[in-house]
Design goal:
By secondary structure, the protein is of the alpha/beta class. Helices cover 30% and strands 25% of the residues. The two termini are 42 Å apart.
Length: 521
């Protein structure tokens, strides 16, 4: 094979400006508390109004948590939170960082089986349970699942009120900070191990691109069990002294109310969220935004143009993964077309190549291959899963993202598909194998194929093509009820096909590429 000239390779060497943030998450919090003690750090709904914690108050509350945690395990041990967003989660994450504990955020939509898997994988010494997004307490379920060392997240500040000062462990930037749960094609959740360095700098480079500073007020309902909430939003604000407006769940009316009450200068969310805000009858142009951010799914060009026009602010697209805290971003001045068709250029300190799948060579610019990343923003590996780590991080240290893309001559990155069988519905990653496994436990199902169906609002919807067993009549509503509790609610198919056969390969595998068109016929 003829060698590709280096100038034509789909390769991006890391740019080294701005410099990386050194140190730990706890040090970043204490630094902002010293510089901006009276500035609002976290604002949140309180009845018809809002309450807030200053940076000084937040640092004090987090320090009390850190002292309290000295009774639970040692530096490097895992602690977990299972809840929708809350100010207590914010304090818990930062207190855990100060104590040298490793944070594991559980999705409040998880089934008991999904929680038990996370429990067995990470073995937390402490679990704090709050509420799911419907407001239903998770505490009793948590006690049934995890047994001892389970506390109510809502009671955190009372639990730590009498904690006495103690010597905290020394934390360095390479220490593990966060286990960010993702999923593999086997359907089992995996935990990306992110260091303090990776988390801090993933957050830093996101807010750097958007020129966030201490005068900004950021509103975003990203779940704290996602990289967007735990890293980009919270740590991005901590690093800059900005105010993080915490919402326990997305509701367009509440989002708009919080924008007004807090004087939001920056909002963000997956396209579904931003569209819901634009279409809400109570929205008014009174909020003067400096910028808007989106990601997690392709953002249509008409939506970008409408956001820019109606909010009179630039739109940014960010690309990151649980395995890589920041990959690429657009910049001020990028056209609506670029924002709609690319995820910008690689972020500083990101080394990127497009390689032939299966650990193949680096391709030419413009050729489709797997997006591979190396640098300080990547995970250390999958927690407790060396086999999966070896499958994802190659011998040269590149993380294979599983996303297919191209790199053009201007350095813009386009995502065109996925190597791994993944559906993205409203920013949530769904792996069909997990849903298929749950369906095949139903006595009336002989075979099932789960695929993503394009949708203007959600990006993709979950569709299931099912072959019934002889003598069984299957009903979509009954199957959705059957899956409720077996998989998270957002993974349940909402489009169904009942067929006599599915397209198969000669080796007996379902040809997924031929299943999706069946839903579009």
């Amino acid at each position: 094979m003829e060698a590709i000239p280096s100038e034509h390779l789909a390769y991006h060497a890391p740019e080294l400006s701005p410099p990386l943030i050194d140190g730990s998450v706890g040090e970043a919090l204490l630094r902002s508390a010293a510089h901006f003690p009276d500035r609002q750090a976290v604002a949140y709904a309180d009845g018809d109004g809002i309450s807030a914690m200053s940076y000084a108050d937040l640092a004090e509350a987090a320090m009390r948590v850190a002292w309290w945690l000295q009774a639970f395990g040692n530096k490097g041990d895992t602690i977990a939170a299972w809840s929708r967003n809350s100010v207590e989660w914010v304090i818990f994450e930062l207190g855990g960082a100060l104590a040298g504990r490793v944070i594991a955020g559980w999705n409040p939509a998880w089934s008991d089986a999904e929680c038990r898997h996370a429990l067995e994988l990470t073995r937390p010494v402490l679990l704090l349970a709050g509420h799911d997004t419907r407001g239903i307490s998770l505490l009793e379920r948590a006690r049934d699942i995890a047994g001892a060392a389970v506390y109510a997240l809502d009671d955190l500040q009372q639990l730590v009120a009498d904690a006495r000062p103690s010597t905290l462990p020394e934390i360095v930037s390479s220490d593990l900070f966060l286990i960010q749960f993702t999923s593999g094609t086997t359907g089992k959740a995996k935990g990306s191990s992110l260091s303090h360095r990776a988390a801090l700098n993933g957050a830093w480079l996101r807010v750097w691109a958007m020129a966030v500073d201490e005068t900004d007020v950021l509103v975003n309902p990203s779940p704290m069990n996602h990289i967007g909430g735990a890293i980009h939003m919270l740590l991005g604000c901590v690093l800059t002294g900005a105010c993080y407006v915490m919402m326990n769940r997305f509701d367009p009316s509440e989002y708009i109310r919080m924008m007004r009450l807090t004087g939001a200068t920056q909002i963000s969310g997956v396209p579904t969220i931003l569209l819901a805000i634009l279409d809400h009858p109570d929205r008014s142009p009174e909020a003067k935004l400096r910028s808007l951010a989106s990601g997690g799914a392709l953002v249509p060009e008409p939506l970008i143009e409408r956001l820019t026009r109606e909010f009179e602010a630039p739109v940014f697209i960010c690309y990151a993964q649980s395995e890589v805290a920041m990959i690429s971003t657009t910049m001020v001045g990028d056209s609506a077309r670029l924002l709609a068709t690319t995820v910008g250029r690689p972020a500083p300190h990101v080394e990127l190549k497009i390689a032939a799948t299966g650990n193949g060579p680096t391709l030419r610019r413009g050729e489709v291959g797997e997006i591979c990343i190396r640098g300080p923003l990547t995970m250390d590996g999958y927690f407790g899963n060396p086999a999966a780590t070896a499958d994802t991080i190659d011998a040269e240290g590149f993380v294979h993202t599983g996303d297919l893309g191209t790199l053009d001559d201007s350095g813009y990155l386009r995502i065109v598909g996925r190597c791994r069988d993944v559906i993205i519905r409203g920013g949530e990653n769904i792996y069909p194998a997990e849903v298929e496994d749950a369906l095949l436990e139903h006595p009336g199902i002989a075979l099932a194929a789960v695929v993503g169906i394009p949708d203007e609002r959600w990006g993709q919807l979950v569709g299931a093509a099912v072959i019934p067993r002889d003598g069984h009549h299957l009903d979509p509503a009954e199957l959705e009820t059957y899956l409720d509790g077996r998989v998270a609610h957002f993974k349940i198919p909402r489009r169904w096909l009942f067929v006599a056969q599915l397209p198969m390969t000669p080796s007996g595998k379902v040809r997924k590429v031929e299943v999706e068109p069946l839903f579009l016929a």
